[in-house]
Amino acid sequence: MLIQRRIMKFFLLVSIANSEFENRTRLKVKENRMKKYIPTTTFDSTDSCSDGLNAKYCTPPFEDITRVLKKKFEASQTCGIDQSERYCKRENEKWSCKFCDSSQTAQMLPTRHLNDHEKTTDEETCWYSGSVIEPGQQTQIRSESDLEKASTRNITLKIDFSHPYEISFITMKFCGPVPAAMVIYKSTGNNDEWQPYQYYADNCLETFGIEPNEEITRLNQEKALCSERYSKNKEGTRVSFNTVNNRGDSSVSPVVQNWMTAQAIKIELLKPSIWPVDNNGLKTPSSTLVASYQYAISDIRVSGHCQCNGHADSCEIIDGQPKCICKHGTVGATCNMCHSFYQDRPWQRGTKANPNECRVCNCNLHTNKCKFNDSLFKMSGNQSGGMCQKCRHNTSGASCQVCKPGYTPDPNKSVDSPKYCKSCDCHRVGSKSKNCNKSNGA
Q: One Pfam match, by short name (predicted)?
């Protein structure tokens, strides 16, 4: 009797072990099928794009874009680029004149000085434009009033980030006086399409026809303003432009986010400021006036974060180009599209109020292809619009949830089983159609 009990117990344990093994095997097979049919999007508890279970609005960190990308500015004119040229600057209220020459290393004043963050000395390095007075008029300059009347060349400085960024600050440190007029422009992709970002002038109304320091409202959140803030304190001044000042929160407002977004920045220097005469009352030589009618900048910094539309918390430099490491089932350079299998609802930007993650299509593990169907989405009350494509295992339907003609559901299989649809037990001679009774398969 004791031996029989032991034998029964042994077979019971074997049966339980086999059952557990079958369950584990079944789960493993299902897991492998899920990997095959559903591209994964993980919700890591250490990931700022989720709380471990649900998606969260996220964005890459704030950074000095010009430093991280190590991009150089392009200038329409640089002192000494074509030939040796004289330039003058004031130091301790006295004139100091030298020569710039791009062919001589010691005399170069290149655009790399505009963002040479890796310099090893404390000495201030500056880019100089050289004189902006048209060559034919340089000999006619005798006084400061002549400078005011002279025809000058506009100077432009451009930098392209090769990727959209949400710009927060643009700062410029001048070696000489702040220009009497200048404009900052932005481009969101095509460098030929420049949008004014900010105006600066000694007199905004006279120079640009714009009232200075206009108040920001909901009606003009994307309007460039004009500032006269630097019209008096000019020498060695740091000009700072805050793109979001009083405009709102970009993580909430698409309008503000559009305003902040730029892929390239252009600074147009329109009119230099005139240096005052020496304090000792001596007349400034005309040659010095000409050589000092220029622009000089030591540093330009553009700060913000890589634009990933609220669907990434990092932006890596890959092959020299910034690229969002997309989460939330999104893809694209700026996480601006849903993955091909995350088409259950339309793509949307993430916000703090709603992360708007892309949702995976429910195809019951019978395909890894689907597309968004707007009619289906509206019929569901804007809940689900994923239309499965190329259903396998003899299934069909928006979610591969029904069996094709000639097949019927197996009541012993789950809808996501590859054997869910079994062949109808119908004789082809005596059957009117390929359809069969779903309850018994006959």
A: Laminin_N
